[in-house]
Here is the input.
Amino acid sequence: MGMEQTLIILKPDAVQRGLMGRILSRFEDKGLKVIGSKFTQISADVAATHYADHKERPFYAGLVDFMTKSPVLVLALEGVGAITICRSMMGATFGSQAATGTIRGDFGVSNSFNLIHGSDSPEAASKELALFFNDGEIIAWDRANEGWVYDLSGDEPE
Ligand code: IDP
Ligand code: MG
Here is the structure.
């Protein structure tokens, strides 16, 4: 598991409830690096593409409505094992079941309004990053404290 990029969406409920800063802080505190950021209102087309795997599920129409009715904050995050780390920081899908200490566990109680999306595999991450970010909108930048976030003495950050 090497350096990975993942797509995070702070959903409309997170934006409306004023939780963007606190949720983003958790990822920054952990040591994940922000390499892309976009405040946007998702179109019905983009929501349908993003959630295509759920098209036949009973909650699909409500999910698309929820995701498109108010702005979201889309983030691209980078780190060693970033996909798994972000998923575990998010917690279980339903706010009512997510463990204390996770984003969904600490900030919400609802099952459908669950605050955050995170890519669940490298394949999903590359598809989702391409869906939400255009060429040039993901920025490779040198972080001043990188050598204290990771041990950089070997071949790979550790
Ligand atoms: P995930 O976001 O934890 O990966 P998925 O099962 O992939 O969860 O579902 C995608 C999104 O669909 C969830 O984050 C949630 O917003 C919504 N969703 C999933 N299951 C339900 C449900 O049973 N009722 C309402 N919304 C649901
Ligand atoms: Mg999912």
